[in-house]
Amino acid sequence: MEPNSSGAYWSERLAKPSTRTVSRASLGRLAVTCVALCSAGLAPAHAELGAAPASKPQDLTGLSLEDLLHEDITPINVLGSHTHLKGGFMVGYRYMYMDMAHNQDGTRDVSQQEVLSQYPVVHTTMTMQMHMAELMYAPTEWATVMAMVPYADNEMHHLTRTGERPTTYSSGLGDLSFMGLFNLWGNPSAPTGQRLVLNAGFTAPTGAIDESSAGKPLEYMMQLGSGTWDLNPGLTYLGDSDLFSWGAQVLGTTRFGRNDHGYRLGDRYRLSAWADVKVTDWFGPSVRLDWHAWDKIHGADPGMNPARNPAFDATKQYGERLDLLFGLNFYVPSGFLKGNRFSLEGGVPVYQNIGGPTIGVDWLLTVAWNYTFR
User: Fold this and answer.
1) Quick one: which of 60, 79, 114, 142 is 20 to 30 A from 191 by CA?
2) In this predicted model, what pLDDT tens digit does every residue of 154-213 receive, in sequence order?
3) Are the CB atoms for 290 and 255 separated by under 8 Å?
4) 200, 208, 187: which is closest to 236 by C-alpha?
5) Where are the alpha helices (H) located in the chain, listed in sequence order?
6) Residue of 250, 220, 224, 252 whose CA lies nearest to 237
7) What 3-state class would DSSP assign to 68?
């Protein structure tokens, strides 16, 4: 699972004591098309249960830190969509799972027999799991920094022309990610409103690119890192009201140079738009559209024979995918877990166009926990 598809990220925004109506912290969006999409009604209006009427201001000075965090129930898996106020910390963990069980060439599904007519081996199924530890800190009210440590666990099943069914594995530390979130427009301490946030991140080449089985290199998608230093620039638009929040984000991955195996993975592009509803002050569902695109690999690993395995062909490692995702977001209001958040998001691709024949995504799931303190 790619570190930036990874999916996204989340965190809570700490509201300052004031006499304004309690509101949910925002999630973001940029891109003119997505702004239009969200403002045109992607986020449905709803009635907020168990809260003071919008026309009656609520005094926040009597609320605890956990009560303030309680007001923010947001979707997950959007990198850098949350900021904190000065002095705020967040620790978190995410588990991401992706299941692949069919082969595609462009937008067309292809059978295993069709692939075997061109190559001596075909991929039958693959699972990609990612464990992500996260830490965020806000040195000022206008800037938040974050670090992410990924651990990947991949499994791929094959079928050969001779009827053999080998299985390969790769697991280990991925590329470390770091990002700064800088508020460009809007008030980060206001309980409602709109904001624009600059995402400025990079990844360090800490993931292995020499994963092998029986002395032979594994496919590009089975490697744990890129082997290069990569930049992650982006912009996030955040909008929220007392009733719901919405947003969109554009984020990219730009790679530099070539790694020790003589290649550079293709640049990646991501556009995400979402909305979430506050059903109660401890639960809120969300819906999200997440588009990914990735370019061809520059160069090639000399140990991979493109005539033997389509996933060894550097010229075929490109594509785009649009995922439709639904989320459930919970806050624990009392007990020994008070202040913790738990989120679940899953979905399927509604469009997929990939260089092939190669294995495609069938469904994906993310489970997350985080806790904010200061």
Assistant:
1) 79
2) 999 999 999 999 999 999 999 999 999 999 999 887 777 899 999 999 999 999 999 999
3) no
4) 200
5) 32-37, 65-70, 112-116
6) 250
7) helix
Residue with tokens 């850098």: 80
Tokens of 321: 């995918």
Q: What is the pLDDT of residues 108-134, one digit of tens each?
A: 999 999 999 999 999 999 999 999 999
Backbone angles phi, psi at 250, to 5 degrees: -115, 135
- Distance, in Å, from the CA atom of 260 to the CA atom of 364, rounded to the nearest integer, reads 31
Residues 6+ apart with CB under 8 A from 185: 194, 195, 196
Query: Could you say which DSSP state residue 6 is in?
Result: S
Residue identified by tokens 């061109």 is: 118
Helices (H), 175-223: none
Chain-centroid distance, C-alpha 223: 19
| Angle at the Cα of 281 from the Cα atoms of 278 and 282, rounded to 5 degrees | 100
